[in-house]
Amino acid sequence: MSTPPKDMLPIDEFDLELEIAGADLPQERLERLWRDTSLDPARAEIAASEAWWLRHRPALRAAPQPPPRWRGWMMAAAVAAAVLLAWVLLQPTEPASPDVRPRGVGGVDVGWVRDGAPMQPGTLIRSGDQLSVQLSTEPGRMVYVATLQDDGEVFVLQAEPSDAQGRFVLSGRAQLDDFEGREWLVVVSREQRVRQNVLRAELQRLLPEPGPGPGRWVVEVTRGRTTR
Question: Hey, what domains does the chain have and what are their CATH numbers?
Fold first, then answer.
């Protein structure tokens, strides 16, 4: 039985772990890793865990310098803790519901703001609430942020390319009006610019139950739902 070339070997979560650890992977393998959507759940779980840790980690306190004979033991303990954390982050879990806080390739983050402060999970969504959107993708990709109503109305809130580092942040915040039907926030990432009438027709075809897809993330913003 022949063996495929190394650059054609299948990629898996082990490659993702190597990328996170900063391993020097071949450029072609990195590009295949970035394009592989089957690893999206693992990326999403890592991004969610890192965000949770940044929000909840305790403040560090200064401590006296340990005696020299303990330094080697503490270094070994730190390495073991890092390996354990990487293993925990890559364990399979139930996929997060895309209803309120979706994540996908590049770690799309939809934040909820009320009266200038982030809203906690379980808060009831209502008219006047504000949304912020952040996205990490390839540099120069066109990013569209739009809302889609169950009556077919589509409103494009922003259409701009990601920056040189592949980052995109919604200009300001989108505020929910008093629409009483079902509504979704849709984020679309494309290699090239598309006409807004084409984008509107594409989003309308997602009804009656819009869902995520390649380069597309969907979050329901129907009033009366709760944040997660």
Answer: 6-56+68-89 (no CATH), 109-220 (2.60.40)
